[in-house]
Amino acid sequence: MPVKIPTTLPARATLERENIFIMDEERAIHQDIRALRVAILNLMPTKIATETQLLRLLSNSALQVEVTLLHTATYESKNTDAEHLLNHYLTFVDVRDQKFDGLIVTGAPVEQMPFEEVEYWDELTHILDWAETNVESTFHICWGAQAGLYYKYGIKKYDLPHKMFGVYEHRLMDRASKLLRGFDDIFLAPHSRHTEIRRADIDQIDDLDILSESDEAGVYIVASKDRRHLYITGHSEYDPLTLKAEFDRDMDKGLPINVPQNYYPNDDPTQPPYVRWRGHANLLYSNWLNYHVYQVTPYDVNQIPQLRLSTFSRTESIHPNSHSG
């Protein structure tokens, strides 16, 4: 089934070339289907590329998805045309009275900063609080995962001696998990980050389960006990050439950067890279949409509870600094 996106969104042309089924708003109103409402809080500087990556994965499902793009109001993007944001993005103020079946919080290139020093940190925490009562399931990516775990549970991030950069093997820690249904015992996923979260800290939180980890890349997928919050430390959504673009960018700037591991044949950056994570990425997102959104969200999106007392009481007992915004 299609993703429903505006006709003018740049990602549309890319997805159409790939024969991905997309639908404009005019056609969607004639469908007797309640599309899943998914908001994407896009914190990446390369917003158009990130939109395209995520829309590609959200489209690979039997479910119809209506996407709302969000950006922060407290930080002005320097890498995305203002007209693009004006025409295709909303801010939290625009949607705070709405309900969504799913929310995706992307990564951001601010991982080496203390969370509280990030310019839009207060706004992000208000959005995370709002999601507790207005979103059925939240999917956090990379820094978005670190931020969510820190704000909700007080879990710290730690600087790495070298950037975790490449494509790594991961193993299943919970074979009964619906999110991991259909996964191979060992699967691949890209990482690109300077910091990490640690198993020892997560093991201290009764409300969290580790679903997947890597000997090299560490903890990969963490989920809350009720599975309403999923934290993914890697970038399964990356395009084939995203790691190459990051590597070339840093090389051109003279920054210290290693060749991304397990990405180029024989780690030779003059060769075209291998793409070995696409199957995992599609399965991860389709399982999320099916088992953690569609199967549990009410048909009437407005019936998503206004207040989940059990969630808030558990959260505040674990992380007393959490507040309702």
Outline:
With 325 residues, the protein is α/β, with parallel strands linked by helices. The chain is 31% helix and 23% strand.
CATH class category name of the largest domain: Alpha Beta
Percent of residues in beta strands?
A: 15-25%
Please give the share of residues in helix: 25-40%
Order of helices and strands: EHEHEHEHEHEHEHEEHEEEHHH
Largest sheet: 12 strands, mixed
- CATH-scheme architecture of the largest domain: 3-Layer(aba) Sandwich
Instruction: Return the average pLDDT rounded to an integer.
Output: 87
Task: Give the end-to-end Cα distance, rounded to a whole number of Å.
Answer: 35 Å
What is the 3D shape?
Answer: globular
Task: From the alpha carbons, calculate the radius of gyration and give it in angstroms.
Answer: 19 Å
CATH topology of the largest domain: Rossmann fold
User: How many H/I helices?
Assistant: 11
CATH superfamily of the largest domain: Class I glutamine amidotransferase (GATase) domain
What does the secondary structure layout of this molecule look like, with pairings?
Elements: E1 3-4, H1 11-17, E2 22-23, H2 25-28, E3 36-41, H3 47-58, E4 65-70, H4 82-88, E5 89-90, H5 92-95, E6 100-105, H6 121-134, E7 135-141, H7 143-153, E8 158-172, E9 186-196, H8 199-202, E10 208-214, E11 218-224, E12 229-232, H9 242-252, H10 278-294, H11 309-318
Parallel strand pairs: 1-2, 1-4, 3-4, 3-6, 4-5, 6-7, 7-12
Antiparallel strand pairs: 8-9, 8-10, 10-11, 11-12
Helix pairs in contact: 1-3
